[in-house]
Specification:
The chain is built from seven helices and seven strands, in the order ααβαβαβαβαβαββ. By secondary structure, the protein is an alpha/beta fold. It has one domain: Vaccinia Virus protein VP39 (Rossmann fold, 3-Layer(aba) Sandwich), CATH 3.40.50. The chain has a seven-stranded mixed β-sheet with strand order 3-2-1-4-5-7-6, sandwiched between helices. The N and C termini lie far apart (38 Å). The chain binds S-adenosylmethionine. S-adenosylmethionine binds next to α3, β2 and α5.
Length: 195
């Protein structure tokens, strides 16, 4: 299916940065507009976390969704220092691009109204720690969950385990969305729920 939401200029610039760097793991045009729409719904004074900045394409969708808002803090975590530095030079001041591995940084990150987990760490590993960072009423977004994307059985098993883990977490209401690369939305109960 061809994308129906036009790419905002900021997303086009990030996609060009990815192309120039030969970075091929950017988010697609399925999850991107969803991130923008969810960012627009973050409550006043809210916080957004992306785990795995890459070349900044998903981040550009998030920033585009926030439009002229300046009350929201966006934190994005990237293990690759060069990628992080590139993106840091091209984002609004309310975006905090942190260099480091999620596994090391998560105790310092605080909690969020919207979390996009898009890196090895925090998604395929340490996923329980990511779920703990979602505020009551907050939303967690995952992509790349379509098992047919993976040829190795151990990778398919990892994907299945992540999906099973979030379904088994009583704090979350889960919607699996079978489009693009296989998406999942999980909303934490407004009263926090019990783990
Ligand atoms: C799928 S790409 C991210 C794409 C980006 N979120 C987007 O929407 O275009 C995954 C990124 O996570 C980074 N990464 C991998 N493991 C990580 C970890 N443990 N902690 C933080 N970043 C990590 C990689 O360097 C890579 O840039």
């Amino acid at each position: 299916m061809s994308p129906r939401t036009p790419r905002p200029p900021r997303v086009l610039a990030a996609a060009e940065r990815a192309r120039a760097r030969g970075f091929r793991a950017s988010s697609g045009d399925g999850v991107g507009p969803l991130l923008a729409a969810l960012a627009a719904a973050v409550p006043d004074g809210g916080r957004v976390l992306e785990i795995g900045t890459g070349a900044g394409v998903g981040l550009a969708w998030i920033v585009s969704g926030l439009g002229r808002r300046r009350d929201v803090e966006v934190v994005t975590v990237e293990a690759d220092a060069e990628l992080a530095a590139d993106v840091r030079g091209d984002v609004p001041g309310y975006v905090d691009v942190r260099t480091g591995r999620f596994e090391d940084l998560h105790p310092t990150l605080g909690t969020y109204d919207l979390v996009f987990a898009d890196a090895e760490g925090g998604k395929w590993t340490d996923f329980d720690r990511t779920r703990d960072l979602v505020r009551p009423g907050g939303v967690l977004v995952l992509d790349d969950l379509d098992e047919s994307l993976y040829t190795r059985p151990e990778h398919r098993a990892t994907v299945a385990a992540v999906v099973a883990d979030v379904h088994a977490d009583p704090r979350f209401t889960v919607a699996e969305l079978a489009f693009d690369t296989g998406l999942l939305l999980a909303t934490r109960a407004r009263d926090g729920g019990t783990a």
